């Protein structure tokens, strides 16, 4: 079973190898964002399961325009975040950083506009 603590520790190692000044804080914040909780929950519940062992919960994912207004929203009744991947960040590059969030989902519907 993968836990939040294990994912934070893995993130710390990766971010430290990339030269981040605050790898633990950054790893906790990234995981909290990915699973939709506050950083405090990640720190306080290090033994919480993540992935297939996690508890499903509702989730909305929206495609937004340049002003941030939702154009299409996928409403998911039961979602479990499985994996978050992203590029290696490089301060000297101006490339767009694209993240990928894999989700196990049940009960998906599409809402125009959000």
What keyword list fits this structure?
single chain, 114 residues, alpha+beta, 2 domains, 3-stranded antiparallel sheet, 3 helices, 3 strands, 32% strand, flat
How do the strands and helices of this protein lay out in sequence?
Elements: H1 4-17, H2 23-35, H3 39-44, E1 57-64, E2 70-85, E3 100-112
Antiparallel strand pairs: 1-2, 2-3
Helix pairs in contact: 1-2
The portion of residues assigned to helices is: 25-40%
Give the beta-strand count. 3
Domain tally: 2
State the helix count. 3
Query: In percent terms, what proportion of residues is strand?
Result: 25-35%
Reported for the largest beta sheet, the result is: 3 strands, antiparallel
Q: N-to-C SSE series?
A: HHHEEE
Shape: flat
Question: How does the helix and strand content classify structurally?
Answer: alpha+beta
Strand order of the main beta sheet, please? 1-2-3
Low-pLDDT parts are: none
Structural features, described:
The chain has helices at 4-17, 23-35, 39-44, and strands spanning 57-64, 70-85, 100-112. The chain has 114 residues and is an alpha+beta fold. It folds into two domains: 1-54, no CATH class; 56-88 and 97-114, no CATH class. A three-stranded antiparallel beta sheet has the order 1-2-3, with helices on one face. Helix 1 (4-17) crosses helix 2.
